[in-house]
Amino acid sequence: LDHNQYTQELYHGPSASFKDLALQLMPQLFKHSVIKQSRDSSYAIVVATSGDTGGASLDGFSRHTDIPMMVLYPKRGVSHLQKLQMTTAEGSHVHVVGVEGDFDCCQTEVKHV
Fold first, then answer.
1. Which of 24, 63, 73, 109 is least crowded, fewest Cβ atoms below 10 Å from its Cβ?
2. How many whole angstroms separate alpha carbon 31 and alpha carbon 66?
3. Structure pTM?
4. Among 19, 75, 83, 111, which one carries the catalytic annotation?
């Protein structure tokens, strides 16, 4: 690269996904927005993933125990490492559900919520 051009590798975060960059910042922005709103509001993060989004989201929101989160993933549609990242997430506010079907089934369920 020339002297004024740079690259950044985005997969060096906690889940080794390029989505880590955004999903480390997004929970903080969400928390800030919730604080600005009425405390009487109910909210939850519901995510459908084909792999990377689940682990990155769970890691980003894991430190925010007052934000409930559910991740739906296709049981037979993610890698072994991605499944471990999701199913070993800790916290009573985190729920990970393996769905019989593909990513589209997961996404359809999230849209129904």
1. 63
2. 9
3. 0.82
4. 19
